[in-house]
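Technical note accompanying the year-one report. For the benefit of new consortium partners, we illustrate the data format agreed upon in the data management plan: each record pairs a sequence with a structure-token string. No post-processing was applied to the example shown here.
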Amino acid sequence: WRCVITIIAFDSKSMAADSLCATGTGQNLGKTKKLYRLKSEAILGTAGDEDCRAVIALLDGVKDFEDMPSKAELEATRTEFIGLLWLTNKKLIEVGISSDEDARFFACVREVNERYAAVGHGEEYARAVLSLGKSSREAVKAAIKHSLFCGPPIQEMKLGEVTKPSPKPKN
């Protein structure tokens, strides 16, 4: 089972993430892409199952909170997932999908009203740095330094910024 054990941080100006890919037990498998610019121009930071294409497809056209897929649609992806979705209207949405021991999936979606946010392993380190007014990049750097489940290099995206497509990392 391959998962993205990660840190995703948001500071109202940019979203940043680490690049570690690992097994569910923490064995390092290399690097992976965690930040995506969607068709809607929103930015999605992803953690959980490495193959989260079904979730990305559901979120690809979201431009406002009212456009979000239903909990049932998210649960139907059967994907362990936690992510931050930064919309072009500057709203931030946290999306979570988890399962229990009987493989039943449960989704949660909430609008984040704080000026910063962090999810994933290393979240506590990132939140501490963000609370001091530091950047999302600095928050991820702290998480990488202090958490065994976060690793370089740092990925970063800003709304409206034109980015070159990055090659898919080899695992």
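Partners are asked to follow this layout when depositing records. The first helix runs from residue 53 to 59.
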